[in-house]
Amino acid sequence: MAGAILIAAQAGRALAEAARRAGLRPYVADLFGDSDTLAAAEAYRPLPGRFGMAPSAAETLVALDDLAAAAGGSMGLILGSGFEDAPGLVAEFARRHRLLGASAETIARLKDPAAFAALCASLDVPHPAVSMRAPDDPSRWLLKRVGGSGGSHIRAATQSTPPPGHYLQAHVPGQAHALNVLADGRTIRILAVTEQWCAPTPIWPYRYAGALVRGGAEPPALCGALVVAIADATARIVAATGLRGLASADILVDGSDWWMMEINPRPGATLDILDRRAVPLLEAHIAACLGAMPELGAPPVGAAAAQICYADRELAPVPDHDWPDCVRDRPRPGSVVRRDAPLCTVLAEGADRAEALDLLESRTARLRAALAAQKT
Predict the structure, then answer these.
(1) Beta bridge partner(s), residue 143
(2) In a domain, 298, yes or no
(3) Does the predicted TM-score (pTM) go above 0.90?
């Protein structure tokens, strides 16, 4: 029988489906309980809270213990987003379950803003300055939440001192990319360079929208010299922190200049578009976490893209919709999705970047039109 794996995340669907592709039985705790999450999960437990904030510590521990009991034991626990600002909670997870991913100590070094800035300085990795003081010139700074994910926590700075749990980071120019890697605590294997974009609103100007990986036959997103420099920097950070498993280095690139913005020490939002190799990525993740860097096989030939479709109006309740095959994170009929909250994820593949993006946009537009027609 396939091994059982525990999963805890804000949204656990992508990890659950990746676990199935790796021949595992996922036992999932997350905030949403989307229809396809429930379909992929062997068992499911809901977590309280809201997207962008860490789930309740006590209730997450209870949910994981309950799932472990239902599984009759598991290979271990894989964490998605939502726990970057809670290394103490991750340490408690590790005391109860075998943690397959970044340790609490690694997360603390990577996600504490001052500690990460000091680490980058010591390794000669370009990184924007950080500050906990009221800025003299707020236009030069962004306000961020410690451990935040998804971009909705980022604001323009004001003249005030950052509130508790927040910090200032210097505002630098550039286009957003990520170096997606597999790490074994000593070195890395590069999976892909992905391009990222935002879905801004007046309140959330840096809200994450989606990501794309180019096809193998088209020009790369970044020149070879830049990729080498970024990969070398990422490998030095991995060796200094002992990071293991799937991870991504978020970067801003402006011509020949680049900045390491942060390291995400977990499987990320690009899992759907990257898990297309002969070796399932969660299988590779577990092997690397156990200290054995696997061969990954050839990268996919075509391009792939994924985009969050945010609700342009409140759906209360969500209708019993016939979701197309290209849609993931499908909300359960009768549930409530607030305006501007994530509604679902749309996927597309194509021969190259342009074809994948065109298909992604047309699928998203058709989905919005179908939902609007169903409402009326």
Answers:
(1) 155, 168
(2) no
(3) yes
